[in-house]
Amino acid sequence: MRLRLFVLAVTLAMTMAEFIEVQKLAPGDLRTRFGLSPSCDPSLTALTTDPAANLVTVAIDCRDNPATTSPPAGASGERPRPK
Q1: Is there a domain that residue 70 lies in?
Q2: What whole-number distance in Å separates Cα of residue 43 and Cα of residue 63?
Q3: Helix, strand, coil abundance in the chain, percent, nearest 5
Q4: Within a domain: 13
Q5: How many Å apart are CA 71 and CA 36, to the nearest integer?
Q6: Helices (H) and strands (E) in the chain — how many of each?
Q7: What confidence tens digit (pLDDT) does each residue in 16-30 have?
Q8: Which stretch of DSSP H or E encloses residue 26?
């Protein structure tokens, strides 16, 4: 099993309409809009305690993007195969 670490990058309040528009953005556009690192694989979550509220709290999690980072040699945890 491989565990992935994440770091909470941004938490902010926005209207539901703004959240819907932000949710449509591609990962690269999210990184640009919120100034996230190129290695960030952004994930959005909206939270509200009042269903009638127009404002939501949005958390943008930044997970390590495997396409831009590679583990050091031998870091897979596998044992070398006998020759």
Answers
A1: no
A2: 8
A3: 20, 35, 45
A4: yes
A5: 21
A6: 2, 3
A7: 899 999 999 999 999
A8: none
Domain-located, residue 81: no
Q: Is 60 exposed, middle or buried (CB count within 10 Å of its CB: 0-12, 13-18, 19+)?
A: buried
CB 22 within 8 A of CB 33: yes
Nearest to 14 by CA among 44, 49, 55: 55
- Is 48 strand, coil or helix? coil
Q: What is the domain extent for residue 44?
A: 6-64
Q: Which long-range contacts (CB under 8 A, 24 or more apart) does 73-79 make?
A: none
Would you say the pTM of this structure is higher than 0.70? no
Rg of the chain over all Cα atoms, to the nearest angstrom: 18
